[in-house]
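Long-time lurker. I teach an intro course on protein structure, and each term I like to show students one example going from raw sequence to a predicted 3D structure in token notation. This year I'd like something fresh instead of my usual example. Would anyone be willing to generate the tokens for the chain below so I can use it in lecture? Attribution to the forum is fine with me.
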Amino acid sequence: MRINAFPATIALLFGLGLGAAPQAAAEVPSMNGIYHYADEDGAVGTWTITTTCNPRCVANVTTSPGHGFEAHLENGRFVTTRVVPDGLECPRVFMNELWLGGGTHAVVATQWWDPVTLTGEVHFSHNSPPCTLDDQHDRFTLTRIG
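-- Reply from a regular --
Happy to contribute to a lecture. Here you go:
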């Protein structure tokens, strides 16, 4: 008895390919809720986060009444770049009988966090205010509280 291997080979090659389940897309954990924000320098706050995924995932974050931002999911992390209008406070300096400097100045914050580990980083930059940003990088954690 002679077996024709060609149909068996075709069936194996194409049958296995058709029968295999497609690889599932990574599930993005829902971040809908209230979170305690704490950075490594001791700054704390409350974030209220609402996520939507249609078709791209976006986290809408409220940091205080009237303040917030959007972060888009990129490579498994939520990412945003935003201007913080009063992010840098410069001290006043007394020089030659005059007070110089002082006031608040805008900084650009580029921020990301992982929705699984709830840890992230923020990098700050500015456009030459009268004082400098000593700490241009922070790490932070989010803890779900509601």
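Some talking points for your students: Residues 24-144 form one domain. The longest strand covers residues 77-95.
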